[in-house]
Amino acid sequence: MNSQGNSASSTSRSGRKEKQPSHTWTPVEDVALVEALTELCVSGNWKADNGFKSGYLTQLEKNYRAKATELWIES
């Protein structure tokens, strides 16, 4: 067996435990997130030269919640 191990809570070289993801995304959530991000990009209101304008995460969250709700109702 490998001495490094592949346990859920691994230890880094510094001796501290590495944080594991606290949320596992479902396929419905993945689709909702991609649709929300696409909507932000296509609208053009939130795009800047090197990424997104400030405040885009608030708008992304609103779009995501709306899309996720729609998708959960459909499924």
Can you characterise this structure?
It contains two helices and two strands. Residues 1-7 have low confidence and may be disordered. It is 48% helix and 5% strand. By secondary structure, the protein is mainly alpha-helical. It has a domain at 27-74. Helix 1 (27-43) packs across helix 2 (56-74). Strands 1-2 form a two-stranded antiparallel sheet.
Observed structural traits:
single chain; 75 residues; mainly alpha; two-stranded antiparallel sheet; 2 helices
Give the structural class: mainly alpha
Range of strand content? 5-15%
Number of helical elements: 2
Strand order of the largest sheet: 1-2
Describe the sheet with the most strands.
2 strands, antiparallel
What is the oligomeric state here? Answer: single chain
What's the quick description here?
By secondary structure, the protein is mainly alpha-helical. It is built from 2 helices and 2 strands; from the N terminus they run αββα. Strands 1-2 form a two-stranded antiparallel ribbon.
